[in-house]
Model the fold of this input.
Amino acid sequence: MKTSCGICGGEIDVPNDAIKGEIVSCPDCGTEYEVVEVKESGVSLKPAEEIGEDWGE
Amino acid sequence: MKTGENKFKLSLTILYDRLRWEEKALAEEAQKVGVNVNMVDAKTTPLELVGNGLSKEPFGDVVLERCMSHIRGLYYAAILEKEKTVINSFNVTLVTSNKLLTTLALDKAGVPTPRTAAAFSLESAIEQADRMGYPLVIKPVIGSWGKMVACVRDKREAEALFEIREMIHEPLQQVYYLQEYVQRPPRDLRAIVIGDRILTSIYRYQPEDDWRTNIARGGYAEVAKLDKEQEEVILKAAKAVGEGVLGVDAMESDRGLLVHEINGCVEFKGAASVSTVNIPKAIAEYALEKVKR
Done:
């Protein structure tokens, strides 16, 4: 599934087995997106949350 | 995602805020074990503390709290524990998400851990650093992946770092956590502990251009073989913070194994790449055992 980057317009190739919540990134500008929904008609993305100070394992 | 839903099966919820390789692997293995798997995004799921039901999400029989944000996961665990079995529990998450509280718990339980101090102002941090000597490791009390962890070689570097921290108007940045620099091989030890057993252990080797061993910073993994004494230290450390799914980090030193950190939302992609143990399957099975007990 292909979609375009909202920042630079680059082409983002989302894997066919992608699931809601997964992170994909634009190969051109590196912007990260979170997969919101996967449908036969296409995939919808939203900008991923930025890494916070309290993030980790 | 709800897959293979069957009302007679146990239900496992994986609570996440960013879906990593680990959460996907956990979901896949849990499905193979034969449970209903429910993926819940903590960012988009509000909870009622007092009111009409906890949430529109059912959450099932047991929740694996896997949020990357420690604070989000901590509060989520606190609320969900009203009604659900949560792994890790609020208490375990509270201690493991804070290095200062982890150190106190380890020391209280008699677990060998590096010399550590806390200071609460720029001046007292410098005073304490001088007292401990250099090099010295400075860490944020909350955070992971080696983020903002620094090794200062002398007073000048310490002052520069502390002054920068003072300028960050964030309360946790004004908690100075100082730890001795332990002479160790270019690796540390990561043991994944589930309940009261060590599931697998790896060495994490530091990359050529970094002194930190975090896999997230380019460190690489190798299977570790622990001796009896090391196993005892690891299990004692895990017990010190409470039972759960844990990543216990330790360093080999001339004083034996020193436990320096315990991770409550353990990442295991690196360990899984070298270990023969099916880590996500074991975690899923452990979660289900907790329900059945």
